[in-house]
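Write out this protein's structure.
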Amino acid sequence: MSKFLEDVKAFCLENNYCVYSIGEIKNGGEAEEITVIEANACQNGYSMAKAFTTTAIGLLYDRGKIKMQDKVVDLLKGDCPSYSDSRWEQVTVHHLLTHTAGLPGGCLDIDVLDSRTFGEDYLAYLFSLPFALDPGTERLYSDGAFYLLSVIAERITGENLLNFMWHELFFSLSVREAAWSCCPKGHCMGATGLYMRSDDTAKLGEIYRTGGVYQGTRYLSEEWVDLALSAPYELRRHDIGHLFGKGGMHGQNMFVDPDKKRVVAYHAYDAVDGEALMNFEYNYAEEEAE
């Protein structure tokens, strides 16, 4: 067990942070995990799931199966519900990935809203919603955009998002367990509801830290990684050093420190100061860990 993990655990306990587990990858080594508060091994990462859905789109992009300017209605084809607003014909994959599709903010949020109000067909529900903005104008964060990306990936691959990720990424990364919340039609939510261990979550950050490689195997092209980080597609820059990553509701976080060649991921519940934890890592004296 690394000294950093032992020290960050002590920091969490001293500050009464409700952190369940913390995963770390340092210098491209093996992923490690420490338990802070006893809980189920796999926890809901909430919006950290969006980084995995983004990666699924990246895998399809690298295979020439999807382009960022592809129109959503064209990708869905026969599965596309009827719609009355012609602005749906302007919405692209890039719009979905950047939350600029014009969908109402917070739509299809199963963690906050009563999902029974969406009906059985979430896709039809989304296409029935009025646009809040014209596509491509402003950013309005919504889970609906990433549900659409999940359905699009399923339409292209012929299997749901979790199954696709198992054979394209998770099994090769030695992910131990993963489960993804689905809608009544069986489509993975894409935006939330991905249950994983903290050390396995950190492996995704390591792929983006290295430009698409994990322990010698390339999973994503450098082109996709550069595109995803510059757009940005979910993995956003922080105001601390060169850190970037993706957080989630109730204190989840996965962040990358390129300068120290470290990735940290943790699952928590509410009583967590994410900025303090990132500062702890950023200011951590490496000689203390030796």
